[in-house]
Structures are given as structure tokens and as C-alpha cells.
Amino acid sequence: MKLRELESFNAFMTHGSVTGAAQAMNISQPMVSRLLNNFEKSVGFELFTRKRNQLIATSEAQQFHATVLRSLNAFREVETQARAIANDQLGAIRIAAQPIYVDTYLLDVVAKFKQAHPKVSISITDTGLEGMLDMIATRQCDLGIGITLDLQDPDVVITPLAQSRAVCLMPVDHRLAKFETIDIDLLRGEDFVELSIGSPLRTKIDYIFQIAGWPRKIAVEARTIRTISRLVERNVGISVSDPFAALLVDTDKVVARTLTPTIEWDVALFTASRELSAVEKRFLSFLRAELPNLRASGCIV
């Protein structure tokens, strides 16, 4: 049983004659007749009665046509999906990312990607670095977006996208807001709003202040940078934070200032040790295309 035979049978049943089938398929009538004869032999039961050199469909043929039609439609769907996948227009991407990038970087990337690839489904999970690494290792996500901070994991491929430097968030009327760059020694005595202990970024910041030789006064700890940003807006304290936080705050209430010494890390793509699919590679190209906008906003250097 061949595809062309299925198509000839469907054409005959749709148009009611060999002539109509031949015209629909743009082939000769003898060719249609041969295809129908071969198809009838392959199915093992009578599809046609023959009267005065004309084919008349049997009741079994009428019943069987519905099955053939479903099969042809399924095959066409396979062809359509294959073309779509080949053109990066179909598929699914599961993304795990640290909350700051879900709230900022990924919003515009996903919106632009979906506009270009509307049939690609995307799921996004916001999680900490450890959770993201676990999701990659257990194949619960395809791509991860996060910070590296010298991370080394043999089970994860890390592709740096850009470099970020910590900033100090403070209310616009803060005594240090007049400076564009602030030495961390000027922050002595301030109330700090920081990420919870255990966060990789918090660990990095704690290390820098340990080197400076003085302890910070932590007023509030929170799990996400979004929460920290809102607390700075409410004058609860200042925060040494990811520069992406500047995209979350009300700029009439909060300013971001660069720090010395600098605290740097890479924003990176995390994947399992495998070849990316075509649609994942396409998404990566959109991640990279967004970098100039992030650089212009001061989120990366």
C-alpha cells in the first residue's frame, strides 16, 4: 500500500470518477486506474464494481474512505510539522532562570521570539541557581539563564552571554546619591536590604565586604531582587544588587550607582551536555540580539 495509491483512492471518492481524480491529481486516467487497481489488491476486499467501463464505489469503499482520509490528513500534518521544525517554527522550549532575569531580560526576548515563532511553546520557571542546575541535570528544562560566579559543574555547559557589575540601589534623596561611583567604605553604618543567605550573589557580596574588613548592618533579607527593590523604594535601606534591578524600580524614587571595588559576574546560558536543537539555537540568537539593549540600559558591560 503506497501513499500515491491512497491519494488516488481519495481523489476518486472525492470527485466520483477516474476522470475527476486524474484532473485533481494532474496525471493521466490510465495512471489513476492502475493506482486504484493496485490499491484494491493491497486492501484485500472489493472497493469497486465495474459497469460499462466505469468504476462505482462499493459500500465498503465508502466506509473505508473515512479511514484513508484520516491517514492522509495525519501524513500531511507530519509533513507540515517536519517543515515547521526544519524552519524553527515548531517545537517547545522549557526555560529555568533566576527570578531577576525572568522579571527583566527574558520578558522582551520571549515576546520577540514568540512574534517570530508563534507555534513554538515556551514554559518558564523562576528558580534559584541550585534549582536551575538540578532542573538541567534531571532534564526538567532545556535552557537555563543565570549568573556563573566561577561556577564549575561537569554536567552543565556554560555559555557566557555578558558580564554584569553590582550596583548600589538607594533612595534618590540619599546622602550618597550625588556620587556616580561609590567606594564601599562610604557605606559604613548604612542599613542594608539584601538577598537571603545562600544566594550566590549574596555570597559574593559578603566576601567583598569581608575583605573590606567591616560588617554590614542587614535590616531585611529577601529571596528575590524584586522584593529588595521595592523595599529600597520604601526607604527601608540600601542594597548592593544586580544591575538588572534598576529595570524594576521606580526611577523617581531609587537610583543605581556603580561601586568600587567592582563586583563582577557573567550572565550565562546553562544547558546539559548535548547539542542544542534548531529551535533552541534560534532562541539563543534572540538572547544575544537583546544584549545591545541591556548594555544601553547599564545592565551589562
Explained architecture:
This protein is α/β, with parallel strands linked by helices and 301 residues long. It has eleven helices and 13 strands. The strands form four sheets. It has a five-stranded mixed β-sheet with strand order 4-3-5-13-6, sandwiched between helices. The radius of gyration is 31 Å and the shape is rod-shaped. The model has no long low-confidence stretch (mean pLDDT 90).
Itemize the secondary structure elements and their pairings.
Blueprint: H1 3-15, H2 18-25, H3 29-43, E1 48-51, E2 54-57, H4 59-86, E3 91-97, H5 99-103, H6 105-116, E4 120-126, H7 129-137, E5 143-147, E6 156-165, E7 167-171, E8 181-183, E9 191-195, H8 200-212, E10 217-222, H9 225-233, E11 239-241, E12 254-260, E13 264-272, H10 278-289, H11 291-296
Parallel strand pairs: 3-4, 3-5, 8-12, 9-10
Antiparallel strand pairs: 1-2, 5-13, 6-13, 7-11, 7-12
Global morphology: rod-shaped
| Oligomeric state of shown chains | single chain
- Main sheet strand line-up: 4-3-5-13-6
What's the tally of helices? 11
Can you count the beta strands? 13
* Cα separation of the termini: 62 Å
Sketch the major β-sheet.
Answer: 5 strands, mixed
Can you tell me the residue ranges where pLDDT is under 50 for at least 5 consecutive residues? Answer: none
Report the sheet-strand fraction.
15-25%
**What proportion of the residues is helical, as a percent range?**
40-55%
Please, what is the average pLDDT?
90
